[in-house]
Amino acid sequence: MTAPDSNGTPMVRFENVTKSYGSFVVLDGLDLEFGAGEKVAIIGPSGSGKTTVLRMLMTLERINDGIIWLDGEPLTHMERDGQLVPANAAHLRRQRGKIGMVFQHFNLFPHMNAVQNCMEAPVTVLRMPKAEARARACELLEMVGLGDKFNHYPGQLSGGQQQRVAIARALAMRPKVMLFDEVTSALDPELIGEVLNVIRKLGSELDLTMLMVTHQMGFAKEFADRVCFFHSGKICEQGPPEQIFGAPENERTKQFLSAVLEAT
Amino acid sequence: MVWDWSYALSILPILAQASIVTIQATLLGFVLAATLGLLLAILRTSPLPIIAVPTGLVVEFIRSTPLLIQIFFLYFVFPEFGVTLDAFVAGVIALGVHYATYCSEVYRAGLEGVPRGQWEASTALNLSPFHTFRDVIIPQAIPPVIPALGNYFVALFKETPLLSAIAVMELMQRAKILGSQTFRYIEPITIAGAFFLVMSLIAAALIRYVERRIALRGIRP
Amino acid sequence: MAQRLLLVSTIMAFLAGLAIASFAGFREFLPGLLQGALITVEITVAGAVLALVCAVIAALAKLYGPAPVRWLAITYIELFRGTSALVQLFWMFFVLPHFGVRLEPLLVAILALGLNIGAYGAEVVRGAIIAVPRGQWEATIALNMSRAAALRRVILPQAFVAMIPPWGNLLIELLKSTSLVSLITIADLTFRAQQMNQTTFRTVEIFIIVLLLYLAISMIITVGMRALEAKAAGAVARGRAH
Question: What is d(CA A55, CA C74) in angstroms, rounded to the nearest whole number?
Fold first, then answer.
C-alpha cells in the first residue's frame, strides 16, 4: 500500500490534510504520497473529494489543516524562525512553478491564438525572450499534433484540439508534476482518444509525475502505475491497477466499479 | 469659513418644507412615468411596424436628449400654443415623460421575458388580445422588473433638482436662494445634498430587499 | 435587424427635422449654437476621460484593494451615485470656494460630471471583471502568473468587450448631463439656447435645433461605440470556446 519508491523523498506528500466548506468535510485527514515519475489515476464517485486533491495541490484552494509537501519542501507552508507557518504569496509563486494543470473545461485564453496561449506564461512569468518562447510553443504544439493550428484561436478549434493546446500550454512552463482534472469529461466521445494519446505520449517521452482524476477506467488500467479509489473524502483502497480493477477488496470499490462498468 | 450649526438648524424647517415639493414632484412624476412607460412598451412591442417603429423613434429621441432641455421646451413652448403651464406642472410632465422612456425599456424586457407559450396558450383559449395582456402577460411581466423600476424611481427622485432651472421651489432652489440671501452656501447646499444621499441610500436598500423577496418567491406573485 | 431599422429611421427623422429647421431661423441661430455645441463636446470628451480613469481605479480598488482602499472606493461610488450630478455640480461650484478651493467653472464642470459618471462606470467595470469565467483566473494561477499580469493580460482584455455597450449608455448620460453646466454660467449649447430664447422669444425653432444637435452628438457616440464593440468582439469571439 505504499508508493513505489524512487530514491527517498516523494515528489508530493499530503500529511493529515483536511479541507471543508463550512460544516461539509471534503477531505478528512488525508495522508498520501506520490513518487517522482509516478503515474497515478484517482477515481471515485462525484463528491468524493478527488478533484479537490488536485485543486489543493495547484493551490487553487486553501487547506484547513495539515501540510502538503512538494519535492521535499513545504508547499502550503513555509519555514520562518524554524517553524512552519502558512505560505505567503511569494512562497506559493516560487513553489507553483513546479506544477502544471490541465482543466476539464480547458480554460484557454479566448483572445489569444494557440501559440500565444503557450507563450504567455513563459514570457510574463519566466521572462523568457519572445523568440525562444515562440520556438518552445511551436515545438510543444507539434508534439501534441497541432503543428498546423499555430494561429488558430480557441473558438476555431474542436474540444479535443483545445484540450491539446491546454496540455502544451501547461508543458511550456516545464513542470515536474502534471495534474489532469477530468480532462476528457467535457469532450464529445469521438474526441477523447486524441487527448488520451497525447497523455500516453507524455508518459513515455517525458520524465513527469502525472496525477489524473478520470472516469476513463480503461485508460487508468492501462496507463497508471497506481490507482487510488476515493470515497467520502478518504482513500478507500489503492494499489496497482491489476489489483484494483481485477481483485478489489473493499466493498465500496466493488460497488463503484460494477456500477461504472455497467454503464459502459 | 466653517460649518455653522446654529445657522444650519435655523434653515432646517425651511428646507424641510421645500423637500415636500421635491417628494410631490417625485411621486407624481413617477406615476406618469410608470403608466406612460407601460403604454410605450406595449406599443413598441407591437407586431405592426407602423406602430412599433415610430414609438421606438420617439423613445430613442427622448432618451438621447437632455432632460433640462425638455423641461425648458415644455415650459417655454406651451405658452406659444396658448396653454400656460405652471412651472411645477411643466416640470413634472417633463420628468414623467423622460423617465417613461426608461421605464418602457424595463417593461419591454419584462414583456419579452414572458415565454411564447403563454401567448400561444391564450390564443388556444380564445382570449382577446386585451384579456391576454391584462390577465396573462402583464401579471407575469411586471414582478421581475419591479427592482429595475425602483432604480428609475430613485433616479427620477435624484433629478428633481433640475426643476430649480424653471424656478420651482423645490429643495435645491430653496437651498440656492438661502445661500444667495446670506452668502452662506455651505450649510443649505450640503443639507440638500445629504437629504438626497440619505433618501437614495435608504431607497436602494429597500429595492435590494424587494429584489430578494421576489427572487425567493419566484416569478409568480 | 430591428436596431438597424431604428437607426435608419432615426437618421431620417433627423434629416427631416433639419429640413424643417432650415426653413425656420436655421441660418440665424445655428452659428451661435454651434459655438455652444463645441463647449458641450469639449466637456463631454474631457469628462469621459476622467470618468474612465476614475472608474477603472475605483473598480480595481473595490475588488482587490486592502480594506482602507476598498472602503474609500465604496464611499466614492456610493456618494456620487447617491446624489445627482446637479447636486455635485452646485456643491463644487457654491460650497468649495468657502473652503478656499476656487476652481474655474469649466474645471468644476469636468470634475463634477467626470466623477459622477466615473462612479457608475466603476460598477460597470467591476461587473465586467466579475463576469469573466472563474476558470480563466484558475488557468492564470496554474501558469503561475502574478495577479497583476493575470488582470492585465487575461482578465481585462476579456472584460473590455463586455464593458463597451454599458459605457456607450454612460457616455450618452454624460452628454445629457453636460446641459447642467449652463446653470453654473458656462456658455454651452443649453446656455446659448436659453440666451437666444430670452432675446428673440422664438422658442420652438431654437429648441428644436438644440434637441437635434444633441441627438446628432449622441448618434455619433452610439455609432462609434457600436463600431468599437464590433471590432473588439471580433477579436475575442474568434476565441470564445463553444
Answer: 32
Number of domains in chain B: 1
pLDDT at B121 over 90: no
Model confidence at C239: pLDDT above 60: no
Q: What is the ipTM, given to two decimal places?
A: 0.86
In chain C, what is the greatest distance between 2 CA atoms, to the nearest angstrom? Answer: 70
According to the model, what pLDDT value does residue C234 have?
73
Q: How many CB pairs under 8 A join A and C?
A: 85
CA distance B191 to B171: 10
Q: Does B186 contact chain C (CB < 8 Å)? A: yes
Q: For domain C42-234, give the CATH number.
A: 1.10.3720.10
Q: Which domain holds residue B27?
A: 21-171
In terms of average pLDDT, the best of C105-114, C192-201, C230-239 is: C105-114
Surface of A (119-148) touching C: CB under 8 A: 120-121, 124-125
What's the length of chain A?
A: 264
C-chain residues near A153 (CB < 8 A)? 238-239
Is residue B203 in a domain? no
Q: Enumerate neighbours of C (3 or more CB pairs within 8 A).
A: A, B
- Measured between beta carbons, the chain C residues lying within 8 angstroms of A114 are none
User: Looking at this protein, which amino acid is placed at residue C122?
Assistant: A
Break chain C into its structural domains and give their ranges.
42-234
Query: Is B109 within a domain?
Result: yes
Residue with cell 499555430: A150
Question: What is the per-residue pLDDT for A227?
Answer: 95
Q: Are B185 and C95 in contact (CB < 8 Å)?
A: yes
